[in-house]
Amino acid sequence: MCGIVGVFNHPQAAVLSYYALHALQHRGQEASGIVTLYEEDGTGKPRFGIHKGEGLVLDVFGEHDVFTKTLRGRSAIGHNRYSTTGSNSLANIQPFQFNYTGGLFALAHNGNLTNTKELRNQLKDDGAIFQTTTDSEIFMHLIARSKQPTQIDQIREAIRTTQGAYSLVMLSEHGLFAARDPHGFRPLCIGRLKHDDGYAYIVASESCALDILSAEYVRDVEHNEILELNEHTIRTGEFTSHFIDSSMEHSSHCIFEYVYFSRPDSKIFGHNVDKVRRRLGKNLAEESPVEATDDTKVVVIAVPDSGNTATLGYARVNEKRFPSRFEIGLIRSHYIGRTFIAPGQNKREFKVKAKFNVVRGVLEGNRVVVVDDSIVRGTTSKSLVNLIREAKPTEVHLRITSPPVRFPCMYGMDFPSREELIANHHDSVESIAAELGADSLQYLSVEGLMEAVPHDHGIGYCTACFTGTYPVEIDVTAGKNVTEE
Hints:
Elements (H helix, E strand, L loop, with lengths): L2 E6 L4 H11 L7 E9 L6 E9 L2 H4 L5 H4 L5 E7 L14 E5 L2 E8 L5 H10 L11 H9 L5 H11 L5 E6 L2 E6 L8 E7 L2 E7 L3 H4 L4 E5 L4 E5 L1 H6 L3 E4 L9 E2 L1 H6 L5 E2 L2 E2 H15 L10 E5 L5 H14 L2 E3 L3 E3 L12 H11 E3 L1 H4 L3 E6 L6 H11 L5 E6 L28 H8 L3 E4 L2 H7 L8 E2 L1 H4 L18
């Protein structure tokens, strides 16, 4: 999971990219970068302005003069980094840029390729010298080595060669390009912003990046589409669309984007995340309600922030059947990053303790229902249950708005091996509950999950982490020696 953005035809393209990356900070917190395209003073030659660094967006772009001295130009692409395997390295910070026979080219990638090892070995045998340990670099080598006559044909040939999940923003002297793989695993949307010279166009992972810029949502980049923004777009407002694979009709959107990763105020895959998460909570309450007793009230609390919206749906349905109420029982410190994407298990455990505190008056003496989006390794859930127990509730019941995560994700989420997944170490849900220290645990069923998500014509979903059904063939060794973005 990463956050990507592209801005085309705006006098402050880098500034817009900066704010968009702020809105997409939840998609990656390890590093950030922006590349702009401008004309050199005096010669008019195209040049790239480049600024990258480790840390949050606010830290990386802390010096304001970087936007006037370095990141000049009317077009830009940006990236928030989230590595799923491997070590951190300055060389892996995107966007990547290079100069080849077709001119200057820069690229930012969200997703995981599944034929990484095969392609890297082929390229190395052909003499390619890799500068990073990320699968994203493969796109650069394939584009640079393509013999196709036009840049769009070079891009199409390169991405046809790859397999797996990729949403891309690419910047060159000829324009800005955006693409989603034929299955459309990762989200990518298009926005438009009016300014004094006409319209600017923004491509971003989620619509919340458009909202921070007061840009108008136009549509999603379709699965299987390469979108081209160029001088024709500036003159007419029209996009040039190219298709990657003429045989692809149905998508395989990552369903975990709805469950956890996207912001609830975003629109992804053409639909509002908030509405989907409320349905997830409602369906879970229908399947697994928690009853009150004569002398104990039921208090429903969320694990903030990703569990907030689904908890509202759960509480609304549960209170119609049993005396219960929604309460704010956990307070989150927003100065601690998302524990899920902290690299290394020890760091993750520390962040759980620093991230949450309980509201004792809400929990003490009550039957507490804790609604969360998922349980992956179980570290966070176990720490949370222990924390809630300190407030002396009578019982703690966990309700999860997704099925058990039993299979590794090869398309970009951070659970790469079955050995790490708590659901694979137990024969029953009751056994998992016992390890976590909860009085009961219930997951949403696969059927309840699928009923909650939109089903427009041509839309399908990847549920591999729950069902083990992978839409794209995977190379089981691909993630062991490279850092995948």
